[in-house]
Amino acid sequence: MSLFPFSFFHYAAPSRFYALAGRLVPVFWAAAIVLAAAGLYTGFFRAPVDATQGDAYRIIFIHIPAAWMSMVLYLAMAFWAAIGWAFNARLASMVARAIAPTGAMFTFLALWTGALWGKPTWGAWWVWDARLTSELILLFLYAGFMAIVSAIDEPRRADKAGALVAIVGSVNVPIIYFSVKWWNTLHQGASISLTAAPTMARTMLAAMLIMTLAFWAYAFAVVFTRTRAIVLERERRAQWAGAPARAPATRGSVGPEVST
Amino acid sequence: MGGYGLFVWGAYGVTALCMVAEPVLAALRLRRAAR
Question: What is the total count of domains within chain A?
């Protein structure tokens, strides 16, 4: 008798994951909206004005959550792509494809909000600093992943090629994280550490962490929605996806198109 | 915003735009796939 009431691999089937994700997406949206409202209220109405940066620092409440999500989502994308490649698990590859656009968006937002924060504080929209440059490379890696999986027609080959890009590119994530320690950078060091007390005011920290959770819930909602779309696109010939029953192909007839 | 309004609202504005557009595009893709 199994120790667990369900199999961990029960939802590895695209049809079962499709149904589960459909039930979870509204929950994640509700969480994202509530958390974002709470985070923005705390950040704009409870957190004080910064002594040196004035109100410009309030960009932190979207900049840091976006930067964290850009890195976390890349590692998640690489993880699921690796699982899809190693175990020939097509749902895992579909999830990796679903993560990529959201991760790229957060990377762009981290760079955009960082530039808008850098101009009033550093006097520059952009510097070729280790943190900024490695985050820009992350954006290129996301773009490269999306380009390669779109360029190859055969889906399983595309999944494998994408997995290679994702796995090799994952070395960039610790480079981004540790860049402020390894190099002499303009970008400030970590405000939050597992081994030391945070260097920011409590209300500022609270708002930032709430916004991080909001972005996380948002990411789940959007990635699950996109995964459901990809599942339908790739499983359209399956009966559960509503494919009509087909008559067997007769000699000399044109076969069905390969789905992408 | 103490003179930093352009920077703060520029950051929040583009963020809001992206975080509205992206789920709309994902939902449209799902609707197309479901047809």
Answer: 1
Region for residue B3 given its phi and psi (left: phi exceeds 0; alpha: psi -120 to 50; beta: otherwise)? left
Cβ separation of A222 and B22 shorter than 8 Å? yes
Q: Does B24 touch chain A (CB under 8 A)?
A: no
> ipTM strictly over 0.90?
yes
Q: Model confidence over A60-109: pLDDT tens digits?
A: 999 999 999 999 999 999 999 999 999 999 999 999 999 999 999 999 99
Tell if the CB–CB gap between A116 and B7 is shorter than 8 Å: yes
Total domains in the fold of chain B: 1
- A117 to chain B: nearest residue by CA? B7
Residue A30's CATH number: 1.20.120
The beta-carbon neighbor of A62 closest among B15, B22, B33 is B15
Exposed, middle or buried: residue A188 (CB in 10 Å: 0-12, 13-18, 19+)? exposed
Measure CB to CB from residue A109 to each of B18, B29, B34 and give the nearest one: B18
Query: pLDDT for B11-21, tens place per residue?
Result: 999 999 999 99
| A255 assigned to some structural domain | no
Residue A245 lies in a domain: no
- In eight-state DSSP terms, residue A50 is B
- Could you tell me the residue range of the domain that residue B24 belongs to? 1-35
**Cβ pair B29:A226 closer than 8 A:** yes
In a domain, A36, yes or no: yes
Structural domain of A80: 22-189+199-236
In a domain, A8, yes or no: no
Asked if the C-beta of B13 comes within 8 angstroms of chain A's C-beta atoms, the answer is no
pTM exceeds 0.90? no
Give the residue from A109, A106, A117, A113 showing the smallest Cα distance to A71: A106
Helix (H) or strand (E) holding A109: helix A90-122
